[in-house]
Each structure stands twice: as structure tokens, then as C-alpha cells.
Write a structure and sequence with these properties.
By secondary structure, the protein is an alpha/beta fold. It is built from 13 helices and eleven strands. α2 packs antiparallel against α11. It is globular, with a radius of gyration of 20 Å.
Length: about 325
């Protein structure tokens, strides 16, 4: 698979070199569909970047997993065969330990609290953490809150999760959280999840509303529980080789365009959440709004996993103490 992807990428690059001889083209690959709010924000990123640079810098998009999954795209960034990608911070935690913090259940009080962290000093520090791994963060995209959804039973409390097989991302933190809640965490790739749900390999999963909608998982899972256990952001990243190849002015253009695309992405995301709710209601999905207190109680000791890492505990405390406007 990797050899096929590498060959495909080389062919694409050769074509681009001929077509864009006098223009720097930044190749951006991701796993999402072209209807996803993150992809729409990337189109805005490309438009803003081209306008700021008067056509000297362009984005070439490869959506829908054309160049592989999130981990494969990260590896392509690290070796300089791809310029930019988007990954969930839950995937990034396997490369950069500090990103595990964002997967702590109920770390953020609400959306405004999360945005104040992502947009502020803490967020900028986090984006710079990947240098040792040949990665550099550009911005955080909103990925909403993650919630449980299941096939045959509603989730009103942690007790309802007991012994259920719940799909999780390949994230140690997600595994720990689902274990604490009494379910059996089952890492499965996103592309294989629809079939896994259909065949009963898992009883449910956890994700945000737009992903539940665009994946059509609502066709199988008829219970969606808004427990809002985590707010795990998406991270837009550029490879160090690609970043270093840009001039100071080009870096400024790209940074500005990335931040501007974040503003529009959040608007797209809010719209997509409303649309998702309407679609899944029409599809007869039962939407539950459980009391989150029992979920918080069951998972509150997860942060103790970092007691031997004072720098990460300090980061957790700074996030919790971060001030924001209600």
C-alpha cells in the first residue's frame, strides 16, 4: 500500500512541476470528504493564500484519503513528500506526547473555553511542539464535541456502556476513557467503521455530530448521546522541510491564511452541526442529552496518568485556569 501511495505521489508531483513551473504549490492531503466543513475551510485557505501572494503560492488539495490515512499523511510530511495535512490531535498524540492533554475528558468547560486555549498562548506553544518530529502546527480547526452513539441501546449514564464494544481512534487516551466508563475500547480505522458497525464487530462509536452524519453511521446507529466527553481539535500541520523552504514573507502569508481559514471553518462547522441534527432526526435517530456529572466522575482520575510528568500536569492546570468570556 505504501509503495502504491509513494508512486502515486511522485506522479502527481511530476505533473504539478510541469503545470506550475513559476509558482510554489503546497500539496495538502487529508482523509475527509469534499462536503466536510474542514475541506471547505481548506478551499478558503487556498483562496486567501493565492490572493495574499498574488498567485505565487497555491494549495493543491488531495481529499478523501487519496494519499492515505492520517498517520500515512503525517509520515509523508516527515519525509518531505507532502507539504500539509490535517490530523486529529488524538492521532498526533502518538508523535507529540503533549497532545494527549486535549483528549482528557471534560478538560474544557465549553466551546468558548476551548477556543480561548487554541487561539491563545497555550495554543501557539502546542503548535510549535512538533519541531523535533519534523512537524509544525499552523492552526487548530474545530472538531466539535465527541459523543457516544450506539446501535441497540441508549446511553443515558456510564452504566449503559457496560460491556459494549465501542470503536475508538488509535489513541491511548481514548482507550483509557472508554475503559473507565466500563466499555470495551476497540480501535478501528475510520474507513472501516461503517462495515464494522454493520457486522456487529462493535456496538457503537464516539465522534462529533457532522462526522456521524457524513459517514452515514446514522443508518445503523439509532441512538446519539450528547455527553460531550471531549473537544479534540483537528490540527493543520506543515512538514519542517516545506516550512523551511518558504521565505519569511511566504511564511507570513501562509500563517495569516491559515488563521483566516479557521474563522470560516468554525462558521462552516456550526452550520454542519445544525444540518446533521436535522438529518439524523429525520432518520429517526433518538438524540439523548444525559446528565454529564456521572461521566465526569468516572473519568476524573484520567489526568493522574500524568503525575510523573510535571510539565504535562502544569499544562493541564494552565488550561483549566485559562480565563475566557462566557
Amino acid at each position: 500500500m505504501k509503495y502504491i501511495l509513494s508512486f502515486t505521489l511522485i506522479c502527481l508531483l511530476l505533473v504539478e512541476c510541469k503545470q506550475h513551473k513559476d509558482v510554489k504549490v503546497l500539496r495538502l492531503a487529508h482523509t475527509l470528504s469534499t462536503t466536510h466543513p474542514v475541506h471547505k475551510a481548506m478551499l478558503v485557505l487556498g483562496e486567501r493564500l493565492e490572493k495574499k501572494s498574488a498567485g505565487k503560492l497555491k494549495i493543491q488539495l488531495y481529499p478523501s484519503g487519496q494519499l492515505g490515512g492520517e498517520r500515512e499523511c503525517l509520515e509523508l510530511l516527515q519525509i518531505g513528500s507532502l507539504d500539509i495535512t490535517k490530523v486529529s490531535s488524538a492521532v498526533l498524540e502518538n508523535f507529540i506526547p503533549e497532545y494527549k492533554v486535549f483528549s482528557i475528558p471534560y478538560l474544557f468547560k465549553n466551546k468558548k473555553h476551548a477556543f480561548s486555549v487554541f487561539d491563545g498562548a497555550i495554543g501557539k506553544e502546542m503548535l510549535s511542539k512538533g519541531t523535533d518530529f519534523r512537524l509544525r502546527g499552523l492552526t487548530f480547526y474545530d472538531a466539535g464535541s465527541r459523543n457516544f452513539y450506539t446501535k441497540t441501546k441508549p446511553i443515558n449514564s456510564p452504566n449503559d456502556l457496560k460491556d459494549l464494544k465501542i470503536r475508538v481512534q488509535k489513541s491511548n487516551m481514548a482507550v483509557a476513557m472508554v475503559n473507565k466508563l466500563g466499555a470495551a475500547p476497540t480501535p478501528i480505522s475510520w474507513g472501516e467503521l461503517y462495515t464494522a458497525l454493520q457486522q456487529g464487530v462493535v456496538d457503537g462509536a464516539e465522534n462529533n455530530l457532522p462526522s456521524f452524519h457524513t459517514s452515514k453511521h446514522y443508518e445503523i446507529c439509532k441512538y446519539f448521546s450528547l455527553d460531550q466527553h471531549t473537544r479534540v481539535p483537528d490540527v493543520l500541520l506543515i512538514g519542517i522541510d516545506s516550512w523551511n523552504a518558504l521565505t519569511a514573507q511566504e511564511k507570513k502569508w501562509l500563517s495569516e491564511a491559515s488563521e483566516e481559514s479557521t474563522i470560516t471553518q468554525r462558521e462552516f462547522w456550526a452550520d454542519s452541526e445544525k444540518e446533521a441534527l436535522e438529518v439524523i432526526k429525520t432518520a429517526n435517530v433518538t438524540i439523548l442529552k444525559p446528565d454529564t456529572t456521572p461521566f465526569q466522575e468516572k473519568t476524573k482520575t484520567i489526568k493522574n496518568m500524568f503525575q510523573q510528568h510535571p510539565e504535562i500536569m502544569n499544562l493541564i492546570n494552565r488550561i483549566k485556569e485559562n480565563t475566557y468570556e462566557n
